[in-house]
Amino acid sequence: MPDTLAARQFARRFAVLVAALLAVFCFAPRLAFAVTGARSPPGAATPPAPSASLPGLRVPAPRPTPPDVDRSDGTTASGPVRAQPAHMPFYVATKGQVTIYVLGTLHVGYADDYPASQPFRKPIFGALDASPTLALEISPDDLLDSEEEVSKYGTCREPCLSRALPDALWKKLEARMRGNPAMLADISKSRPWLASMLVETVDTLKAGFQTEFGTETQLQNVYLRPRGRVIGLETLNEQISAFTRLTQAQQREMLAQDLVQTPAENVADVKELHRLWRIGDADALKAWDDAKTEKLARSKQLATQIDNRVVVDRNYRLAARMVAMAAPNKPVFVAIGALHLGGRRGVLALLRRRGFVVEPA
């Protein structure tokens, strides 16, 4: 019984992490599945900062939501200048009478990415209004099971990570968590793939990102079609299995890559990726991320295998399913992690191979 109770307590602690942890999975090509917080109703109070979710972690105070600023000097008719939303990678794919809108998302963000007066650009709002279906990577209903699934497949009842890692890699992880024994204790009960994500999550939260300002949450807050439906392109089990089916060598490569740079260097990378996402060029995002992976890979062969399993295979599945659900004169609005879009094996290229004309909007 004590072991069972301890396992449940550990699972609950990781459950608190699910929104913060899995929400950042778009920030590296392997961290691609997007599990974000449940839909927040319009006008809901801002959730607390995630600092309490990670033992011993101190994160910067959230950036305040910028007010609309009137910069007119009274001598022109220009009126107030309002804060502008992020451009974001947004594309329209058409084939005859079939239309698929594709938005590249970040699953965490800052308040000023989504100004209260206009959280999205007008073309994005127009596409949402025209679409009877909003398709995310994971459906809101599937999120309800995320705690149990992550705990089941990503954690151990007792410390197990040190036995799964070479001694040098374990010592490197210990050094990274020096001064945060509570966090190290939690990570020690995780599988290598989840440990990798926890390390990356810590650095992402240090950059001040918040899950309530992830694109999926913000989209659902404004998707107000009376008969619209919100669905998932994948099941939670499909996404998690992309990681659980990795070999031990591949999982160790994931963790090793996250420990190559200092936390400050990782934070700088996250901020650069966010900057590129705001600009909205999917191919530029993918090129930057490929270069980063090339730099961090300890084994080029293992890194390629990870990318194929966790990103490329899912790209084919995502493209096939969005095409299958599209119908003439019934547009589908698809919102998936931005790093799934660009590149020669990205979703946009796969749609073009299927005969769609794909243009930025």
Walk me through this protein's architecture.
The chain has about 350 residues and is of the alpha/beta class. The protein has a domain at about 85-140 and about 210-360. Helices cover about 50% and strands about 10% of the residues. The protein is built from 15 helices and six strands. It has helices at about 1-20, 120-130, 140-145, 145-155, 160-165, 165-175, 180-185, 190-205, 215-220, 235-245, 250-260, 265-280, 280-295, 300-325, 345-355, and strands at about 90-95, 100-105, 135-140, 230-235, 330-335, 355-360. Strands 4-3-5-2-1-6 form a six-stranded mixed sheet, sandwiched between helices. Helix 8 (about 190-205) runs parallel beside helix 11. The N and C termini lie far apart (about 55 Å).
Gist?
With 361 residues, the chain is of the alpha/beta class.
What is the number of helices? Answer: 15
Main sheet record: 6 strands, mixed
Taking pLDDT < 50 over at least 5 consecutive residues as the criterion, the unreliable ranges are: 1-57, 67-78
How much of the sequence is in beta strands? Answer: 5-15%
| Shape designation | globular
Return Rg in Å: 21 Å
Overall number of strands: 6
Topology as a string of helices (H) and strands (E)? HEEHEHHHHHHHEHHHHHEHE
Q: Strand order, main sheet: write it out.
A: 4-3-5-2-1-6
SSE blueprint and pairings:
Elements: H1 2-22, E1 90-95, E2 98-105, H2 122-130, E3 133-138, H3 140-143, H4 146-154, H5 161-164, H6 167-176, H7 181-187, H8 192-206, H9 215-222, E4 229-234, H10 236-244, H11 248-258, H12 263-279, H13 282-296, H14 300-325, E5 332-337, H15 347-353, E6 357-360
Parallel strand pairs: 2-5, 3-4, 3-5
Antiparallel strand pairs: 1-2, 1-6
